[in-house]
Write a structure and sequence with these properties.
mainly alpha; three-stranded antiparallel sheet
């Protein structure tokens, strides 16, 4: 009950500022905002950008939101918990992306430590990178996803955070696992679902899955095409999720949820224009 009370109290807290968080992460990386790509300054070793993105107080256990009345109050409690985490994880990815873009634009080849970092990113994003510099294919994977799309999938897959897999395993996205005895078993079937130590770990795994798994190559290609026009939208990327679930109407369900909840999701985000 203390965790639940804590979440409800969070409804009055000031909203996170994604832009400020991304800027802090970039400063930690030694990368300045603004005219960086015109005048890159990437001299010397860079700090660990993964460590810079950890939340001070990650949600280690999702509270039982079944105790919050269904409707506006439950939605508010769920979004107050989830939206800042999604924004933090997107900012973490964006910091890596800015580092790669700056390195790509710099005339000089990466030094030894930068090459080591590139190799780590290539391995993490499951790419056999080519050449001594930044492999352009890496930038199609190291990229953010629209806040509304991420949250809507969590809503559908977890029932606004009330599913057993969400409550017992922090699994908000219906992510499966396939080794014997892994995660949590589904009653009445042989299916098993991943369990995570925190909600942040669940969000991170979901973003990494869409950014690396071969099933979502069409999503990544479409995102890159739209990004070139600065027109990435949740609707356009939801349309590529034909392999996320076996249900034929899965994308239609997500789009319907998006139409009725997009404004509410954005109101919990850091965009002042929302």
């Amino acid at each position: 009950m203390r965790l639940l009370s804590r979440f409800l109290l969070c409804l009055s807290y000031p909203r996170w500022r994604l832009g400020a968080l991304a800027a802090i992460l970039l400063l930690v990386l030694g990368i300045a905002a603004g005219p960086l790509l015109a005048e890159p300054q990437l001299d010397g070793p860079l700090p660990d950008f993964d460590a810079a993105a950890e939340l001070d107080d990650p949600v280690a256990a999702l509270p039982d939101l079944r105790g919050v009345p269904a409707g506006p109050k439950r939605k508010a409690a769920f979004l107050t918990m989830l939206v800042p985490i999604v924004e933090a994880e997107n900012a973490r990815i964006q910091a890596k992306r800015e580092w790669l873009q700056a390195l790509l634009e710099r005339p000089a080849l990466p030094d030894a430590q930068e090459r080591e970092r590139l190799a780590e990113l290539c391995a993490d994003y499951r790419l056999d990178c080519r050449g001594e510099g930044v492999d352009p294919r890496l930038l199609t994977r190291v990229d953010t996803l629209p806040l509304e799309m991420v949250v809507i999938q969590a809503v559908e897959e977890s029932g606004w955070g009330t599913s057993r897999f969400a409550r017992q395993g922090n699994n908000l996205f219906g992510m499966r696992c396939f080794s014997d005895g892994c995660g949590l078993g589904q009653q009445g079937s042989g299916r098993r679902f991943q369990a995570f130590d925190s909600v942040q770990e669940s969000v991170r795994a979901y973003l990494h899955n869409l950014n690396t798994h071969r099933a979502y190559e069409r999503l990544r290609t479409r995102r890159a095409e739209l990004a070139a026009r600065e027109d990435v939208s949740p609707e356009a990327l939801i349309a590529t999720l034909d392999r996320y679930a076996v249900r034929a109407d899965y994308r239609d369900v997500l789009l319907a949820l998006l139409r009725t909840n997009a404004l509410l999701i954005r109101s919990h985000g850091s965009d002042d224009t929302a």
